[in-house]
Design goal:
Layout lengths: L18 H6 L4 H9 L16 H22 L9 H6 L5 H43 L5 H48 L4 H6 L2 H11 L2 H5 L5 H20 L1 H47 L1 H6 L3 H50 L6 H43 L10 E4 L14 E7 L5 E8 L10 E8 L4 E5 L6 H8 L5 E9 L2 E4 L8 E2 H6 L6 H10 L3 H6 L7 E2 L8 H14 L4 E5 L7 H15 L4 E5 L11 E6 L2 E6 L1 H6 L4 H4 L27 H4 L29 H11 L2 H45 L2 H61 L2 H6 L2 H43 L4 H45 L1 H6 L3 H51 L8 H40 L27 E9 L8 E8 L4 E5 L6 H8 L4 E8 L2 E2 L5 H5 L2 E4 L8 E2 H5 L7 H10 L10 E2 L8 H15 L3 E5 L7 H14 L4 E5 L11 E6 L2 E6 L1 H5 L5 H7 L3 H25 L1
Parallel strand pairs: 2-6, 5-11, 5-12, 7-10, 10-11, 16-23, 16-24, 19-22, 22-23
Antiparallel strand pairs: 1-2, 3-4, 3-6, 8-9, 12-13, 14-15, 14-17, 17-18, 20-21, 24-25
Helix pairs in contact: 2-29, 3-5, 3-6, 5-6, 5-10, 5-14, 5-32, 6-31, 8-11, 8-28, 8-29, 10-11, 10-14, 11-13, 11-14, 11-28, 13-14, 13-26, 13-28, 14-32, 17-19, 24-26, 25-26, 25-28, 25-32, 26-28, 26-32, 28-29, 28-32, 29-31, 29-32, 31-32, 36-37, 37-38
Amino acid sequence: MDSKVAVEKRKNPREGANPFSALTFTWVLKTFLLGYKRDLEVDDLSRPLKEHKSSIIGAKLSTAWENELERFNKKHGSSNKSENFGYYKKRETPSLRRALIKVFGARIALYGIALAIMEILLRVLQPLALGRLLRYFSSNNMSKTEAYLYASGVILCSAVNIFVIHPYMMAIFHTGMKMRVSCCSLIYRKALKLSKTALGETTVGQAVNLLSNDVGRFDTALIFLHYLWIGPLETIIITYLMYQQVGLAAIFGVAVLLMFIPLQGWLGKKSSSLRFRTAVRTDERVRLTNEIIRGIQAIKMYTWELPFSDLIQKARKREINVIRQTSYIRGVIMSFIMFATRLALFVTILAYVLDDHLITAETVFMLTAYYNILRQNMTVFFPQGIAQIAEAHVSIRRLQEFMMNDEIQSTKSSTHKNTNCKDAQKNENESQIHTVNEDDNKSVILEGVNAKWLESDNEDTLQNININIKAGQLIAVVGQVGAGKSSLLNVILKELQINCGKMLLPNKIAYASQEPWLFAGSVRQNILFGRPMDYRKYDQVIKVCQLKRDFTLLPYGDKTIVGERGISLSGGQRARINLARAVYADAPVYLFDDPLSAVDAHVGKHMFEECIDKYLRGRIRILVTHQIQFLHNVDKIIVLKDGKIEAEGTYDQLQSMGVDFGRLLESAPTVKPDDESSSVPQSRSASRHPSISSMSSFMTNDTTGWGENTPEEVDEGRSKGSIGGDVYMSYLKAGGNYCVIFVIMLLYIATQLGASGGDWFIAYWVNLEETNRTTSSIVNTTNNNSTITSDSSNIVLARSMCVYIFTGLTVFTIIVSVIRSFAFFEMCMQASKRLHDAMFRSISRATMYFFNTNTSGRVLNRFSKDMGAIDELLPVALIDCIQIGLSLLGIIVVVAIANPWLLIPTGIIGIVFYFLRVIYVSTSRSIKRLEGITRSPVFNHFSATLQGLATIRSFDANDVLIEEFDRHQDLHSSAWYIFIASSRAFGFWLDIVCLFYILLVTISFLVMSDDSNSGEGGNVGLAITQSIGLTGMFQWGMRQSAELENQMTSVERVKEYTNLESEPPMESQPDKKPPNDWPQQAKIQFKNVYLSYAPMEQPVLKNLNLTIEPRERIGIVGRTGAGKSSLMAALFRLARIEGVIEIDGINTGEIGLHDFRSKISIIPQEPFLFSGSLRKNLDPFEEYEDEVLWAALEDVELKEMGLESHVNDGGTNLSVGQRQLVCLARAIVKRNKILVLDEATANVDSRTDEFIQKAIRRKFSDCTVLTIAHRLNTVMDSDRILVMDAGSAVEFDHPHVLLQNKDGFLTNMLKETGNTMTEILTTIAKENYENRQSGSTTAL
């Protein structure tokens, strides 16, 4: 299904890298250098490592899941897996978590042990070494050598930490990625086995959300997993060490810090339940968006943009409400980061001072260092771990639910006893299901087969079906709408499980579905479908499927890229390519589900005779059709009625039995209780598409399929260069006006002032205490008592004052930081909401050219993944950046006050960091963009697969598609792997630079100090603890700023879609607005009309000049690609138009689109229905009274359904005929003066066809009716027929008049229908003409 040829990628740079290179990340350097020079392209990506290849780890997890199912079945004494999916849903279920642990558990545990050793040993030793070092500055009891030794200890701890933590993070990220890839692979493999009923319950939006957001949790969940047990262990050890230092005061401080944990635990739990609610609401919004994108053409023609925008807005509002709560929780947790350590330190010092102890630099800064470790592990990583694991648990549960969906029966031989079979076989005791697949079997036998779609259905869909088809027979299956024709084909395909009876089938079956399924790829790839190319056979197949002429018209012949679902082809072209795929497959049995209904009579006749009858002679062919002219040529006709075989035999036998073919035949569709291939409407557009031949402007000059030219696919737009300041500003402005932004910045600054003020004040207090202590000892030696009193009273006063100031600063920091978080996240929610609304508004107003050149997966990617990032990831990255930026500023000021000389190395480090960041960001940004682009094909492939499941399974193409899905995943994995590697490498190198900074700061104090070093302890402690904090924070801040820029690409991608080329205005200018009762006459005039689908392309309609009189019924006919649907596109202004189209003298180009589109009713070929009530489908604006709606339902005989009955996504719970009737009811409700029928009756049986035609004559007798038709019998009684050819009107008159020209276009088309039909239709045209003439004479 991929339109690009797979190119062997270059070797992954990580392959073969030596241990030193792996440890120091030097293997990433080449990528950085390349990324710095130019933007990276998809071709620059390397092949995936063997350990994360989708096929390998997907198979591993798949095996583990199968084993888990087996274990579960054994435990619960069940042998049949497919039978027990219903049981799983109700009770205990097999555990996906257990399967994941089996595959990845050992490695994750190993990483945890490595992390624990590093965390507990190194992190605990560093503050001890720091404390001893500070003692050197506070007293004279230590030699300089010892001081240097302790300084080395401080530096060494940091160094080892760097060399352990980065490879650990890389490994854990890599494992998370492997879990995600394997889960995606598992979901895809499951999707290929989904039963029809399960497919009805799962929407594409839901499945895409699983693939985009849910599995994405694995990427982040593992990072903090081990802190859930390392954190508490480390807390116990550190508490003990602090207790040794300050006694009970340490217990108070730690207690305060740990008090946050239950609160965070509760917040984490709340966050998890909110995550589940968010996922459900996001599913709903993505599902709605998906429905709208797929039905956009119908929505535009029905002028329903506003009610759908309203629906989306409501869904978005519901989603944002939950995300807002999650964000507030995040805000509170982020605030803890600001004040948790400071509060704990404050409580410890307060308790220590109140217990009449004197504070020293060693005590305070050792405590500070310990609390910093605890803060990071217990108030950041631990709660993050809880929240992430909780969210991952929810995601695993959702994936597990998907994995528990019903599957279709395996294609292997199976025998099951069943006692539910009633009257299907003579002996109930012997009733059984028996399906046999044999390679050498050449016949199709069904004995006593009963089947139903849903277990809950009271009646079987098919009852007591007995069929015996021998090799080489051509069988026609006929019956009215709802007779069970498609259900019969589905039984043979094993899509519909039989609950009784016996089937004997060959192993290989080829199938052409009623609604053609095409994927985004070349025409040739659609026909070959993964099979090897045999030029001779291929040439024969395209010849018999009448595709030769089309290939000469296509710009690149059969290498032309067809859009998603074949969107750029006409209905007839899609049907023929769909048929060619089946014919090329070379199977003993062929099932054709009404493939001739979408083509005109001439092409249909050739397809039947040359392809189905001659080319496939000798094979079993089962053809569902309602075209009377073909029934003479079949070996046997099976007549179905209400799921039973009413009669079978040859045409003559059935006629002699009195079967009324007129009531059964002509142009029926099949009915499906569930849609033929998925629960999603088959086509984005709800009506015929302009053929690609007309879109490519008839490039007939030697453009056959065998040329060397290959087409360029329209690639996904991708910005280049850095994210501009305008993107940041647009995000902030979307959140609020300048005043709001200013207030939030003030809150941030106030919080930082409070926090940094507290840090500086503690050093000042320590220095004060030490100075006073020194002064006290001097005074004591001189015996000056009065000074002691005075000094000691000053100290007491100063100490109580210090306590008050410190308390004030701490309380101020807490209050302001919480207010700041709430205000900030509220602003982010507003920004999210407005960006989404702007993008949706722009999409709904975009031209049809945009939808024809962009796949729905690409658009959905913006609405799911990018909006998800803006909703949840971007605010966190932004608050981190602002918070860290201000903290850095605070630290630099505090350090500068302690020792101004340290500003010099700080400045140098800043410059080095800046240059490192420039190199990293340029690479990281283009890698992140590549990651976004390589993600889209994964969604597209998944989405296309769900829509063509029946076809895929019938061709046994599962393995080919799994292989291709794995290829798409591997490409995305290459981008993701290089992204996490570059991110880790950047962190590692920043930390190495930071290490030199700590070295410089620590040694500088020792070098610059003289022997009288007492009194500086506060300054030294402050400088070293802050520089250790500064380094970790500096590199985190740099990485977060790069991460922010990466997340900003999502804003940029969303912004790209807010500035799409828009259709003309919906509403007219006040002076141009037509009157409310316009059009009264409904006279339509085309004056010099040219239509083209894309800029710079040749026009498809050329110089069209015609006048359609009021109340005329016009038939529009022509061969495939003649421009029939382009005429409709011109009338609705769905493409670029030059010239004038007037309705009742008003130029439609000068008035608003809604003003004239709302005045034209359309009944499209592929009816567009959306999920909701029938009332909503008839009247989404709620403009009409119930009586009007009930009357319309009565007119189309759907009254028994009721207005409140539920309609599935795409109307899949209604038959094709019923869907058309709903569209007719819409037209009746609107009572417009102009009605367009676009092949509206091509897919309904003759009774429904007749009913629709009568209803139109009765209800629209005073309207202008335009009927686009393939079949001449539907338009032969028209007032005039317009014959189109190559984009021009070649004939336009009454059919009888046109038929007088023996070489005319219409005459030649009529000859193709066969002699009998020609006579009948000529008579109809003549009678109609005579009646019309006599009518006009009488009027005179």
